[in-house]
Design brief:
This protein is of the alpha/beta class. It has twelve helices and five strands. It binds adenosine monophosphate and magnesium ion.
Length: 328
């Protein structure tokens, strides 16, 4: 997954020299960072800018959410700037990684819980950057990443949820969907890939599907990365201007872009009809990449914190094992 790919410098022009992927590193150092200490750990010097309103609250799509009125350049709930946002992501990285390891350990020890991060957004909304910069903060062996593209011939022979079910995270894993079953009510709606009555039924079907997924022990974190029309143009243009970004450009992106209003309608309907209590949508302004990354890292962290993860007890006699080992 998000290993060491080269060229994805953010289009937040300047690089911050910071490497959030390397915090103390000590996965196997025996010393675990506390899972409770991060809240107040201020960066040296300035007062720690933090959330004015908890991200889970301020980013959650309210009932009646109006997509058209949403400011995609804003940083709701967060008073800090880019440097502060990046610092907070870095500050929380150890805790994120520690909790992920606990989840993984629990899964290895018979637990049934997992987390699923669903990333939806138009082209260039920053889904890949989230995978690299946020999901990349945790141990890749505990991540089950899946991108959903145009269905393969085999996938097309099945119900649209077939490939989704197969990609659900097993116990202990953080699943990451880069696009998801929501494409089946987004592009499918915009391009009329199924009859209207079929599409209509999908919203409730998706809600029931997610209900089952949650009931089986998976916490679903749904994120809509909302990039503005203008910013999308700039990001696509950048892909055309930089040889290291050509690979990300797809001429079809412009065709989708031409259908922008239809996509916005389709997103609005998704938010209206699948924003459930058990699997709510979060709406993230995505024009500032640093903010979107901060936001998603906080939502993921919150989901993990809520699991109240411990360490599985030894299923062997520690003293006996110590003696056995010492005798070798
Ligand atoms: P990308 O994420 O940029 O690699 O693009 C993947 C493409 O696959 C996007 O244009 C999606 O809309 C498209 N896609 C994903 N899921 C589906 C689906 N279920 N049906 C049709 N197209 C899809
Ligand atoms: Mg693309």
């Amino acid at each position: 997954m998000a290993a060491a790919k080269k060229s994805d410098k953010t289009s937040d022009k300047k690089k911050s020299g910071k490497h959030p992927g390397k915090h103390g590193g000590g996965k196997h150092s025996g010393k675990k960072s506390s899972t409770t200490s991060s809240k107040g750990s201020a960066p040296a010097g300035a007062a720690a800018p933090d959330w004015d309103v908890p991200p889970t609250e301020v980013l959650r799509a309210p009932a009646g959410f109006d997509l058209a009125a949403f400011d995609r350049h804003s940083t709701p709930g967060f008073g800090g700037d880019k440097a502060a946002g990046e610092a907070l992501v870095a500050d929380h990285a150890d805790e994120l990684s520690d909790l992920q390891e606990r989840l993984f350990a629990e899964g290895r020890s018979g637990g049934s819980r997992s987390v699923l991060l669903v990333l939806q957004g138009m082209d260039t909304s920053g889904k890949g950057g989230i995978v690299r910069h946020v999901v990349g903060l945790v141990d890749p062996q505990g991540v089950a990443h899946r991108s959903f593209g145009v269905p393969t011939p085999e996938e097309r022979r099945h119900h649209y949820l077939w490939r989704v079910r197969r990609a659900l995270p097993r116990p202990g894993y953080i699943g990451v969907f880069d696009r998801s079953h929501y494409e089946d009510v987004l592009i499918a709606r915009v391009d009329s890939l199924a009859p209207d009555e079929t599409l209509e039924k999908r919203y409730d079907e998706i809600n029931r599907f997610e209900e089952k997924v949650v009931a089986s022990g998976t916490t679903i974190v749904k994120v809509a990365l909302l990039v503005s029309y203008e910013e999308q143009r700039a990001r696509l243009m950048e892909r055309l201007e930089r040889p290291d970004k050509f690979w990300k450009y797809n001429p079809a992106d412009v065709d989708s872009r031409k259908k922008w209003p239809a996509y916005q309608d389709a997103y609005q309907t998704v938010l209206d009809r699948t924003n459930t209590e058990i699997a709510p949508w979060h709406v993230i302004p995505a024009d500032r990449k640093w903010f979107a990354r901060l936001a998603v890292s906080e939502l993921l962290l919150d989901a993990l914190r809520r699991l109240d993860l411990g360490w599985p007890p030894a299923d062997f006699d520690v003293d006996v094992e110590k003696r056995r080992l010492a005798a070798t």
